[in-house]
Write a sequence for this structure.
């Protein structure tokens, strides 16, 4: 399991001109849009559950899953 911080996720998967703020990534994680693991008070994103573009392989939203199957 490869874990990265929320800040590192934003840096790795977004360019400088489209990078979301820390609070936006935190909100995505808390809403269940990103696969997270909490260690102590810090949230980490499990990169093994992401595809190459940084999107979750499986979302909790069935519509998102259906669209992702079509796009891939």
């Amino acid at each position: 399991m490869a874990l990265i911080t929320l800040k590192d996720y934003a840096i790795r998967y977004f360019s400088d001109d489209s990078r979301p703020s820390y609070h936006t990534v935190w909100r995505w994680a808390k809403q269940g849009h990103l696969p997270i693991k909490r260690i102590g008070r810090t949230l980490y994103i499990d990169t093994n559950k992401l595809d190459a573009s940084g999107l979750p392989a499986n979302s909790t939203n069935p519509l998102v899953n259906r669209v992702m199957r079509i796009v891939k």
About this structure: The longest strand covers residues 42-46. Strands lie at 3-5, 36-39, 42-46. The mean pLDDT is 84.
